[in-house]
Fold these 2 entries.
Entry 1:
Amino acid sequence: MQIIFDKVNYIYSDGTAFSRHAIKDISFTINKGEFIGLIGHTGSGKSTLIQHMNGLIKATDGRIYFNGQDIYEKNYNLRSLRSKVGLVFQYPEHQLFETTVFKDVVFGPANLGLDKLECELRAYEALKMVGIGDDLLDASPFELSGGQKRRVAIAGVLAMRPEVLILDEPTAGLDPRGRDDILEKIAYLHRESGMTIILVTHSMEDIANYADRLFVMNRGELVMQDKAKAVFSHYKELEKMHLAAPQVTYVMNALRDQGFQVSTDATTVEEARKELLGLLQR
Amino acid sequence: MIRDITIGQYYPSNSVLHRLDPRVKLIGTFIFIVSLFMFNTLYGYIVVALFLGAVIKLSKVPFRFIARGMKAIVVLMLFMMFFNLFFTPGNTIFELWIIKVTDNGLRQAVFMGIRLIFLILGSSLMTFTTTPNQLTDGLEKIMRPLNHIKVPVHEISMMMSIALRFIPILLEETDKIMKAQMARGADFESGGVLKRAKSLIPLLVPLFVSAFRRANDLAMAMEARCYRGGDGRTKMKPLRYQGKDYAAYACVLVYFAAVIALGIFGDQLF
Ligand SMILES: Nc1ncnc2c1ncn2[C@@H]1O[C@H](COP(=O)(O)OP(=O)(O)O)[C@@H](O)[C@H]1O
Ligand SMILES: [Mg+2]
């Protein structure tokens, strides 16, 4: 599995008075098993960018390769691409439509043309993965709580067994408990099945905890793509883009300014703890 | 694709036409439409074309934008011209099997087509230059006298502005849900009629659910702000006629008089 973007541009309503250049000259490579964090201010083009990855939006200009094949080639099978690149939209619970939770999750695999048993097996497995218990399988999806609905919707994509899972702000609007829950599940998928993950989020703490590599978007441009530590060391620049580093980064920098001999590249609470304990023992 | 239809859209700009009182534009459009059926002379068409041209120029809406909207009604126009062309009695120009084209038919087809274009251009100019809110505000004020015979004018116009506001929201929502289901392998394009109709269920159910949710939220938000209908309600920006509005009325009246005069005294085309 490999995704390559080569100078991808997209303009909404191209050629009209309302045209909007949403993403500009985006180039990158994502390899199998990576956990990518995609951050950027609202309106910076994150959602637009990820919709290119499974061919829902066709780039105005530029090329996209999936496993070395140009997805805009004439006879390229976009539906098969969509089964390999699972995309969970923002507020995915708004797309639930079936009479029961189980049937809704079956929808994805059924569209792949698999036989009934296989579809149900996958649906069951996906629901287990997101932590939906057997007692909820026959409930109406509209009766569930917000966090449960969201997990069912994510299971709806997981049931297609994609190689890449893209999530657009999967924790938006959830309580802290529901948020940690979903992030833990995603991290588990990444760890256990080696699934490639692309996570769009506003929470720097989340990203620092889980992502291998960060993509930073600003006004439609991909301005940084680097390891989390490297990106957060530029926290002054991030602030100019209405972003921030994790809070511990600020704490460590403040300590450094006070004259303490600490390294400022801690991005998670755990790293900061080690660093501070080390300081105390010195 | 749905977004390509520009008829009925608002085109933001700051022209004189945009700044006119919506009542002037509503009444002006009404008079314009009436005027289209008051004449039958070549000069009449020229006067209307000149008037429309001037108004388009004043509106600062790019002609390309207007023209794109017209593309959407080409089918309707061909349909109408077709009937006029083949089913109008008169002197036969040429005959092919059972198809007869008459001189009157040809003339009517051409001129009805032009009239239809004028009509749509005129009315879409109104929506290009007036926001839906202004439009309903204007309508409400014009219809105000009906309040005396117990017509709930304010409520009707409020419903209208809400409905108009919901159109783009629902279009956007449709787009989003459609993409979300396509990401789950849904196929809205292939298959027979039955299969296609069935494939709409995953789109329509969430769309309805979301429309109801939004309506509910809106009702709640309105009640939270103590909305209780039109009685005793005042406006932040009450409509008041200004100099340019009277001038616009004068222009429209002069135009109307000219068209009527041409209709009475000009050479009849047919
Ligand atoms: N369907 C659309 N039509 C027109 N413009 C859009 C549409 N969706 C997004 N945009 C515009 O494209 C830009 C990028 O939007 P988006 O990708 O949603 O940003 P993000 O997800 O980072 O908040 C924004 O300026 C937005 O207004
Ligand atoms: Mg977004």
Note: Strands of chain A lie at 2-12, 20-31, 35-40, 61-66, 69-70, 85-88, 164-168, 196-200, 213-218, 221-227.
Entry 2:
Amino acid sequence: MSDVVVAGVGMHPWGKWGRNFVEYGVVAARAALQDAGIAWRDVQFVAGADTMRNGYPGYVSGATFAQALGWTGARVSSSYAACASGSTALESARAEILAGRCDVALVVGADTTPKGFLAPNAGDRPDDPDWLRFRLLGATNPTYFALYARRRMALYGATEADFAQVRAKNARHGLENPNARYRKDFSVDDVLASAMVADPLRLLEICATSDGGAAVILTSADWAKRHGVADRVKVRAISTVTPTFPQTVIEMPNFSTDSGVAFSADAVTPFKAAIAQGAYEESGIGPEDLSLAEVYDLSSALELDWYEDIGLCKAGEAERLLHDGDTEIGGRIPVNASGGLACFGEAVPAQALAQVCELTWQLRGQAGARQVEGATVGITANQGLFGHGSSVLLST
Amino acid sequence: MPAIEGWFTIDDEPVLLGNRCTSCRTVYFPKASFFCRNPDCDGEEFEEARLSRRGKIWSYTDAQYQPPSPFIAPPGDYQPFAHAAVELAEEQMVILGQVASGFGVADLEVGQEVELIVEELYSDDEHDYLVYKWKPAGAERDGVRA
Ligand SMILES: [Zn+2]
């Protein structure tokens, strides 16, 4: 398969700015264009990652961003896949390039988010499990994160201090990231002193929601060469897999798992592991080749699950990896060198693209004080509500 | 009356009402409609399934802060409540529910046996609306393990 190149990346800093999401998207897009040294008029395809919380312009984000940048007649797509929207948009752009239909594509995601828990959209919808779980159970997103955290404690002997240590590590990483929203050093004790939200998870361990924007320019390798565009970082794989039936881990926003009566459940790869596996299979690159990883730490404890799901260690060994300092910058395989969601807060359609921005800077050696020495291969991993897998594998 | 129609009975020994694909025997809760979700099954017919009343806690947590709408909090000061995800052995599935009022996370552990009850979720001028909950098996109602 011919290469697709990450020619440019850009972000609008994360925060609670309270402005229109289009503004963040345009700032990020212009930063990415400038980074690539490519003019907006040279972009042939625009892929928007949608936001559901900003009215109609958010549902057709590709066209919204294209109009804001100035109509040029470029082709367009708009994708919604919850937390996986960014990589779904990225995949739509990559597919256009691989199909030979274009050479230069811009991918943009941006969001303006409300305060507090992410609540379902307004209106009575008794057929929608995402509405019903709030009405009948009062089950928020942290409810599900906490179930996984408690399960980890019961299965592997993880402790609240382990979870707090993940948060403290990511706080240290995020200190060095100018695009992060929270740049404050938190010790394990600080984390353990924050209010319990959903036992065993505390306020500092649960990802907030943020405003922000991220953009990526993809080009064909040929075009990059012909135009003298930096082509150091290449897209090796984008995994957008769905789960395999029966799903035996309870997933947001469901009331139950699938029943395994018709199957041997042991035969099924759990969804989060399948997401990374998809990227490894496509690229022929394995977890042993990784220099770093950006994973979706919606909670501190969830980051530990990802260590195992992306193959950094066997089940039950994530705490040891953490304690050995392996996943800290300077360690064997740094995880969330950007500071992760802990330091960003989630800007849903921008977040998976922000992960790609971080890997790109790292693989170019441009990550400043948070640089992972000699980084050549990185993976992102994330999961969109209702079963959208998302993993992007980049290498030099 | 039930806060949602057809999900559970409200008699003395309440049960969750799921359904079962008549082709492959896969159980669904809440009920599947129109088609079976087993990728190898093209079944479209279901029979009602009364799910096991007892199961074991797969994991648990609580809600220390009041969940947002459409959750309806009881009047008065907010009282945290617990959630449990419970494994049903026969159905080979895990079902999430609130834990009976009076029981907190200190009363729960992974692997513990629980049983199904119904309790008030909220009320208005006309009705009390009931929902299924999990209660530690054999416990008294005051939240102290028997
Ligand atoms: Zn079936």
Note: The mean pLDDT of chain B is 93.
